[in-house]
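To: structure desk
From: M.T.
Subject: fold request, one chain
Message: Could you run this one when you get a chance? Sequence is below, nothing fancy, just the single chain.
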Amino acid sequence: MTREVRLELPRDATAPRRARQLVEEHTGALEGERRDAIALLVSELVTNALLHGEGDIVLTLEPRGQVLRVEICDHGRAHPHVRETAGADGGWGLRLVDAMALRWGLGQDATRVWFEL
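Reply: Done. C-alpha cells follow.
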C-alpha cells in the first residue's frame, strides 16, 4: 500500500463487511496474521461506530513507513472508552485494539479512533 485510502461506509449492517473488504483489497502485501489483525480491529471499531455513533462512518487507511495507520470516524458525541468489564453484551472492541495495536488513540473533533499496526 503506497497511498492513503478513504471510504465512506453505509450506516447499516453491511458496514463492517465492507470495511473488511477494503482492508483485504489494500493490504494484500502484508503478512497474513497482520492483515487479519487489521481486519478484526477495523470490524470491531466500525461495529462500534454503527451501534454507538451518528452520521457518516469514514474509514481511512494510511501507510506510514513500516506501519499502517487506520482511522474510523463518525459524528457521534460520545467519547469512546474501554469499558470496565466486557461480556456477552460487548465491550471488547477497544480492549482488542489496546491488546493488538502498536499504538492507538482518540481524536478530539469527532468520534474518532485510530490505531497503528
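Reply (cont.): The radius of gyration is 13 Å. Let me know if you need anything else for the meeting.
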